[in-house]
Amino acid sequence: MLAGKTALVTGSTSGIGQAIAEALAGAGANILLNGFGPADEIEALRSRLAEANGVEVAYDGADMSDADAIEAMVAGAKERFGGIDVLVNNAGIQHVAPLEEFPTERWDAIIAINLTSCFHTTRHVVADMKAKGWGRIINVASVHGLIGSIHKAAYIAAKHGVIGLTKVTALETATSGVTCNAICPGWVLTPLVQKQVDAKAAEKGLSNEEAKRQLVCERMPTERFVTPEQLGGVALFLCSPAADNTTGVSLPVDGAWVAQ
Ligand code: NAD
């Protein structure tokens, strides 16, 4: 389905971004990986994805809080692949603290990485997508882009912002063959959420298994984590012809969390 196309997935060295990169590579897209991690592990991922799928896979370690690095990454992709057809804005971090204790430095980092980076990547790719008459922009937001909860001021502000940016991007590209949608996952057991499981286990004296069960059951009526692979499948759907007229949508994949 995506043979000959190139996808940039930010934050794809771990968790949800990695699973989305795997799904897009499986559909034939060349991939530009991005994110942090040990160099040998990133190289192993890069070569495994390339060999398993017969596609080209490159890596750029641009820091998503650095506007110049983002611009250089997109320019590099244009040189190497001829441009980006699928942009997945996925890189993200979390910090949990009450408002009065929330460190300003963490607020700034979360807004930069989780929100402002999406503006920069989008503004650098959108003109070429419109000129080609096809493009997919997928923003990995969160249920926390749709509803609030305590102690996540920066994350929730950023994710609400991502949903606003998704709507504007969809409107500005509406007649061009480009779509822009947000995926809003509930809990997914990645390193980002394991930290919150660990905090709950420590605070309440629970085992890892019991802390995971409580975290999920508090919010998700299905009582099951969403898997990264399921989100890879949703991203593939948004790239498919079936989704040609699906744009500006914020799609919860959340075990009925926001249905309550
Ligand atoms: P993760 O920690 O497993 O992966 C985050 C990725 O972002 C990693 O590849 C990391 O290296 C990269 N990253 C972090 N800071 C970066 C920076 N400054 N520059 C470039 N890359 C950077 O987390 P995840 O759970 O897979 O999260 C991915 C996205 O999904 C995030 O936007 C997160 O907010 C969102 N999300 C996660 C959940 C969940 O339950 N895990 C739920 C809803 C939304």
List the helices and strands and how they pair.
Layout: E1 6-9, H1 15-26, E2 30-34, H2 39-53, E3 57-60, H3 67-81, E4 86-89, H4 104-132, E5 135-140, H5 153-172, E6 178-185, H6 191-204, H7 208-219, H8 228-239, E7 250-253
Parallel strand pairs: 1-2, 1-4, 2-3, 4-5, 5-6, 6-7
Helix pairs in contact: 1-8, 3-4, 4-5, 6-7
The structure holds nicotinamide-adenine-dinucleotide (NAD).
Element-level helix/strand string:
EHEHEHEHEHEHHHE
Q: Which spans of ≥5 residues are poorly predicted at pLDDT below 50? A: none
Q: Helical residue percent?
A: 40-55%
Q: Can you give the mean pLDDT?
A: 98
- Tally of contiguous helical segments: 8
Tally of strands: 7
Strand content: 5-15%
Largest sheet: 7 strands, parallel
Give the termini separation: 36 Å
The helix/strand class is alpha/beta
Order of strands side by side in the largest beta sheet? 3-2-1-4-5-6-7
Bound molecules: nicotinamide-adenine-dinucleotide
Task: Write down the Rg.
Answer: 18 Å
**Overall morphology:** globular
Structure write-up:
- By secondary structure, this protein is an alpha/beta fold.
- Helices cover 50% and strands 13% of the residues.
- The protein is built from eight helices and seven strands; from the N terminus they run βαβαβαβαβαβαααβ.
- The chain has helices at 15-26, 39-53, 67-81, 104-132, 153-172, 191-204, 208-219, 228-239; strands at residues 6-9, 30-34, 57-60, 86-89, 135-140, 178-185, 250-253.
- A seven-stranded parallel β-sheet has the order 3-2-1-4-5-6-7, sandwiched between helices.
- Helix 3 (67-81) runs parallel beside helix 4 (104-132).
- The longest helix is centred in the middle third of the chain and has 29 residues, at 104-132.
- It starts with 5 loop residues before the first strand and ends in a 7-residue tail after the last strand.
- The protein binds nicotinamide-adenine-dinucleotide (NAD).
- Nicotinamide-adenine-dinucleotide (NAD) binds at residues 11, 13-17, 34-37, 63-65, 90-93, 113-114, 140, 142, 185, 187-188, 190-193.
